């Protein structure tokens, strides 16, 4: 939206990030950057850097990164809309009101969803909805529940909405945007997206219809559920089904219950558990957890006891722990879901079952250790600890890390002192067995990027800081990235560049990509060194050559550890890689000496 883009750009131009942050964090000049004690974690030595040139911050301690808007959201613990208001009040720069056309367009989206809801409800009550009503009744979802959750039915066929519900061009455009209808590839009229499905409407916190989920009647080859696509009024990565109705109960109890499906919600609510919600056709995200923190202090994850349920519970529990939200896991008997149990058990029995809560910390450690205990073989204990060490990278507080390490040590029957030394030394996967001299080296090593990862992240950082280097994009597209984070970042920034969107340190750090990718590149973006275009090309070409060497070395290493040395193909491939490496080294020497 143009008005919002203009406000954001003006704030970034006219409000120096160092001026704003210094109101809360004492900053001292160090080179062209400013440094201070991080406001997001406790530290004695300053590791919080603010780049004056690039207008973003990065903490080398807790890895917090962002632009001015992200700082306001994190420091003030507010959402993006409120952060804009705070910066508008601080700077005197007004947030432009939505243009009249924009307001009308958004209202049309709500309007067509409302009209569709009434149409679906009418169909459920009419002759066409007989099979749907019979199915719902067979699952003890009678008329009262149908009305309470405003269920409906989308009839079979392709042209009900365009022919009976949406009549104007504006409504057709709005219905296309929210995904109620789809464009025909054959040049015909748009067709209905939801067909022969029970319809579950999804409401925002104001009670407006923002999306639908459609369920097939009984078993079938099609997907059990299909959901509305994302739109300007529906973000499934933040939306909970039933939160509008459940928020009052959640706020009173300060406890929320998360289940997997819509019928699970209905079943538990029918048994008096009004504070039950479900995610909208997606795994739990950080934004889901942050949304719930506004209403709830405690999160109960009620999921199936099978492997998929445990995996989902592990993911959600990790996010809750990292966001400091109290979380408990309730694993149901395998083969049973909350809806089944809501029909098999009376209210008292169901509430009793939900009292069997496992603290998320205990559950996560048990899952990460993969059922290893004190009786496990050393190899399994080592793998278990590596899983735990990897998990702890997402935590900033040393006390949190030591707590989880102590749980792991106790379960594996290893002394806490040994586990802590191993973790601080880089973990078992970084140590080379059989060498006493390696002990001191591993103790000093930090779990930062290895040389190949460092090289590839420097390549990405240079592209972000010097966009003229995108002229090498064809060569970059052919690179075999060894670092998965660098590969993701390359795809991300090239897509932005090709779409003529801004590619800069601030835009990358403030983007919607997951934090792990921002944390991997931020230290390389904060560096002070500025280069002329000619020097940046020279450095960039050197990094590309170095990256190719890393790939060749990696392939030779894999070859030596893979195929038997007496395999003729082994010697052929090894000779090829050695020749390619020699050619590349010769090319690098000639470039460095200026010989062409």
From TrEMBL:
UniProt EC number: 2.7.7.101
Keyword vocabulary terms for this entry: DNA replication, DNA-binding, DNA-directed RNA polymerase, Magnesium, Metal-binding, Nucleotidyltransferase, Primosome, Transcription, Transferase, Zinc, Zinc-finger
GO molecular function terms noted in the UniProt entry: DNA binding; DNA-directed RNA polymerase activity; zinc ion binding
- UniProt keyword ATP-binding present: no
Disordered: where is this region? 430-450
Q: Which reaction does this chain catalyze?
A: ssDNA + n NTP = ssDNA/pppN(pN)n-1 hybrid + (n-1) diphosphate
One Gene Ontology CC term in the entry: primosome complex
> How many and how are cofactors bound here?
Binds 1 zinc ion per monomer.
Which InterPro entries does this chain map to? DNA_primase_core_N_sf, DNA_primase_DnaG, DNA_primase_Znf_CHC2, DnaG_bac, DNAG_N, DnaG_primase, TOPRIM_DnaG_bac, TOPRIM_dom
Q: Which cofactor does it need?
A: Zn(2+)
One BP term from GO: DNA replication, synthesis of primer
Domain named Toprim: which ranges?
254-335
What quaternary arrangement does the UniProt entry report? Monomer. Interacts with DnaB.
Q: Give the family per the record.
A: Belongs to the DnaG primase family.
Which comment does the entry carry about domains? Answer: Contains an N-terminal zinc-binding domain, a central core domain that contains the primase activity, and a C-terminal DnaB-binding domain.
Q: What is this protein called?
A: DNA primase
Organism, scientific name: Leptospira neocaledonica
């Amino acid at each position: 939206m143009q008005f919002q883009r203009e406000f954001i750009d003006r704030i970034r131009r006219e409000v120096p990030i160092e001026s704003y942050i210094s109101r809360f964090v004492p900053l001292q000049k160090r080179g062209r950057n400013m440094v201070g004690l991080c406001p997001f974690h406790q530290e004695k030595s300053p590791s919080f850097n603010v780049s004056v040139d690039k207008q973003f911050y990065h903490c080398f301690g807790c890895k917090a990164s962002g632009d001015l808007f992200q700082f306001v959201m994190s420091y003030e613990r507010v959402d993006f809309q409120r952060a804009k208001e705070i910066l508008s009040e601080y700077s005197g720069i007004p947030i432009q009101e939505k243009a009249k056309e924009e307001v009308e367009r958004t209202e049309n989206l709500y309007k067509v969803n409302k009209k569709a809801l009434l149409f679906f409800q009418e169909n459920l009550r009419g002759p066409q909805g007989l099979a749907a009503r019979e199915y719902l009744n067979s699952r003890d979802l009678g008329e009262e529940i149908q009305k309470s959750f405003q269920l409906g039915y989308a009839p079979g066929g392709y042209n009900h909405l365009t022919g009976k519900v949406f009549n104007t061009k504006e409504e057709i455009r709005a219905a296309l945007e929210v995904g109620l209808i789809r464009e025909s590839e054959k040049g015909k009229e748009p067709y209905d997206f939801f067909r022969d499905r029970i319809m579950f409407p999804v409401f925002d916190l104001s009670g407006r219809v923002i999306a639908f989920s459609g369920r097939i009647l009984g078993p079938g080859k099609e997907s059990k559920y299909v959901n509305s696509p994302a739109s300007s009024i529906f973000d499934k990565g933040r939306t909970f089904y039933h939160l509008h109705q459940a928020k009052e109960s959640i706020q009173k109890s300060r406890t929320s219950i998360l289940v997997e499906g819509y019928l699970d919600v209905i079943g538990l609510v029918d048994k008096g558990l009004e504070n039950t919600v479900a995610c909208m056709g997606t795994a739990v995200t950080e934004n889901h957890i942050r949304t719930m923190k506004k209403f709830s202090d405690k999160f109960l994850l009620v999921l199936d006891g099978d492997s998929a349920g445990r995996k989902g519970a592990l993911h959600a529990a990790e996010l809750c722990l990292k966001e400091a939200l109290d979380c408990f896991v309730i694993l149901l008997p395998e083969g049973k879901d909350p809806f089944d149990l809501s029909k098999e058990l009376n209210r008292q029995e169901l509430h009793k079952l939900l009292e069997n809560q496992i603290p998320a910390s205990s559950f996560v450690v048990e899952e990460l250790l993969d059922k290893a205990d004190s009786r496990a073989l050393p190899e399994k204990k080592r793998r278990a600890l590596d899983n735990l060490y990897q998990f702890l990278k997402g935590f900033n507080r040393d006390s949190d890390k030591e707590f989880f390490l102590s749980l792991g040590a106790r379960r594996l029957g290893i002394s806490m002192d040994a586990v802590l030394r191993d973790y601080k030394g880089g973990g078992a996967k970084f140590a080379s067995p059989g060498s006493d001299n390696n002990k001191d080296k591993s103790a000093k090593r930090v779990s930062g990027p290895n040389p190949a990862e460092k090289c590839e992240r420097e390549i990405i950082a240079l592209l972000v800081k010097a966009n003229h280097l995108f002229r090498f994009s064809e060569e970059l597209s052919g690179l075999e990235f060894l670092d998965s984070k660098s590969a993701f970042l390359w795809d991300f920034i090239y897509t932005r560049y090709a779409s003529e969107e801004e590619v800069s340190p601030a835009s990358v750090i403030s983007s919607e990509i997951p934090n792990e990718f921002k944390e991997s590149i931020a230290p390389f973006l904060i560096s002070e060194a500025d280069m002329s275009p000619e020097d940046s090309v020279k450095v960039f070409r050197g990094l590309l050559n170095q990256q190719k060497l890393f790939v060749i070395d990696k392939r030779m290493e894999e070859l030596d550890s893979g195929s038997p040395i007496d395999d003729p193909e082994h010697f052929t491939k090894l000779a090829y890689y050695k020749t390619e490496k020699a050619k590349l080294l010769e090319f690098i020497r000639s470039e460095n000496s200026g010989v062409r």
